[in-house]
What does this fold into?
Amino acid sequence: MNNWYFLEDEAEYEKAMNRYQEIKYAKKGTSAYKETELLAYLISAYENKTSTLPELDPIEFIKIRMEDFGYKAADLAKEYGDKSTISKVLNYKQALSLTMIRKFSKLLQIPTEALIKEYELQ
It folds into this structure.
């Protein structure tokens, strides 16, 4: 396990993101899992410090963060438990539920405030 500290620049941020990608599926209870939790916190803190939230609807925000982390809809379904619902949500056919907002906020490191904004369904 690396010795992680608060991320101070883009190079440290990239290093943390790369390490997170390597171990993101670590088994709960392992030291690698604890490292993913720490990295998620450090990455989120750095992003909060260095960027402002774009004016995006919640679904676009989710799609961008999925791309950032290399996630597919199946990864969200694994977290939420229903692939059909995830598909409907990502295609603007169904609104985000409170449970989804909580789970996706944690998984994708998106502030809940960004996910509760109103948006148009199709």
Summary: DSSP finds seven helices and no strands in the chain.
